[in-house]
Amino acid sequence: MFIQIIEILGTFAFAISGVLVALEKRMDPFGVLIIAFVTSVGGGTLRDVLIGVTPVTWMLNMTYVYVILGATVFSIIFRKYLDYLRISLFLFDTIGIGLYTVVGIQKGLIMGLHPIICIALGTITACFGGVIRDILCNEIPVIFRKEVYATACILGGFAYFILRKLPIDDNIVFVISGSIVIAVRLIAVKFKISLPSLYKDEV
Amino acid sequence: MFIQIIEILGTFAFAISGVLVALEKRMDPFGVLIIAFVTSVGGGTLRDVLIGVTPVTWMLNMTYVYVILGATVFSIIFRKYLDYLRISLFLFDTIGIGLYTVVGIQKGLIMGLHPIICIALGTITACFGGVIRDILCNEIPVIFRKEVYATACILGGFAYFILRKLPIDDNIVFVISGSIVIAVRLIAVKFKISLPSLYKDEV
Amino acid sequence: MFIQIIEILGTFAFAISGVLVALEKRMDPFGVLIIAFVTSVGGGTLRDVLIGVTPVTWMLNMTYVYVILGATVFSIIFRKYLDYLRISLFLFDTIGIGLYTVVGIQKGLIMGLHPIICIALGTITACFGGVIRDILCNEIPVIFRKEVYATACILGGFAYFILRKLPIDDNIVFVISGSIVIAVRLIAVKFKISLPSLYKDEV
């Protein structure tokens, strides 16, 4: 129940982040909806396709569809006022990636995959919706350039596998490692920490 | 038999629309072929992968491959005269999306998916070949910005599920809802109707 | 054993080619790693997804992951000196596409697919890592424009199916057709042969 509420908030925030990018590109309502959809469920969809869980998750659970439709209509109508929600949306989004990371890791564990692959699946679940959104909008994905986003997922993922070796209840492992993802992202944004961009001296 | 002819005409028209975009980007013959291929079968391929029907359809039916190869060679040779075929190609293309939409819906029904998901699958089948084409050509997909294309598919999809509740033969449901897709697109192009592009006032 | 060494060299060279493109785009270390990964395993991943072999190959074999991680760290550290390795990298890369092409063909044969589809799968395995890399970096894929890369794979693929009809040992068919891919590419690069880019006279 608690997890479902978080999942809905995360889906909602992801969808709105998609709407905001689509509006900047002056898309029509259909384009805005697709971008909202892809941002929300794209990461989980890619994960499902790579591990062979089909039909992919969102096709079997109409909650995602309704939340994304609602978020899109809501944010198209109130598009001039979305800036006032910026902090709430940022928090939902951050909670969403924490949850998505752990959900992705657990799907990998169910398939019996290696911990590093599970962490990759968690990171894909949390981050690749945004990557596909940026590709569809003809941008180099923002998380490849300046966001501490994937790094938070990877650190939370390692925490998950360390905690799992200790005599701790599975639910607590879930909550702590998800919280680490959230904390790393909040701290990085608060203190403007990001990975340095790399380049060769002579280009 | 009748449906197969339509499918071949649609595949042919989709392939040529891919060739035209690839020529504008001055690709080499291999690039042109890939873009033709992706435009024709990309939507159905994405649908198959999402619902787990693999190997994807075109790998099991060489007709697609031969039609696309033929369309590519034809349109490379006659590339200077393709403008004369514009109206025929537009008609084939429009008939193709009508057919592809209903085919996609039916694949969703076979998997036991919710009507809204089926409509999404129909729209993906008809429209996402063009989306992948535009991504490979480094453009924002045209259907997100100005084409009444997806909207026609969605309206036809709703018609399909309304008609299906009536005591009508399945084949007639198929033909009518496909025709609605075609009619909506023809009317929209004829009267230059499109969805408004959205943006925030202050950008 | 011999094949595994070639595969590791190919994976290594592909990963570094990804790093080089990512550095030009001034990505952060995470972005560089993802591009290296996608360049190395993207083609095989797309092939696996299209034919329904899941979880995809690299998730079940940690060798790929370690080689790519190693190649990425190596080439980030020595990024200023990579130019000195240009010829070695080009050779590894070329050997890699020869191997990947034949591996892809054989996966198609195992699924009982038509020879033309098998050749397409070989070409996808060898070339689409680079295609996905270029899309993520917001470029029109280079192989659609000027590289004799796919052409080499296709020629090697036809050779494979011609040789297979002769009374020759399977391993020798493997080696000869892979070598043809390598030879065509080397000759094309040496003599600066490429397919002409196509365009309509009036644009």
UniProtKB/TrEMBL annotation, chains A, B, C:
Q: Which UniProt keywords apply?
A: Cell membrane, Membrane, Transmembrane, Transmembrane helix
What is this entry's stated membrane topology?
A: Multi-pass membrane protein
Mark the transmembrane ranges: 6-23, 30-46, 58-77, 84-103, 109-136, 148-166, 172-191
Q: Which residues form the Glycine transporter domain?
A: 5-79, 91-164
Q: Which InterPro entries match?
A: Gly_transporter
Please state where this protein is localized.
Cell membrane
The primary site where this protein sits is membrane
Superkingdom as given in the UniProt entry: Bacteria
Record Pfam families? Gly_transporter
User: What's the family?
Assistant: Belongs to the UPF0126 family.
What name goes with this protein?
Trimeric intracellular cation channel family protein
UniProt organism field: Mariniflexile gromovii
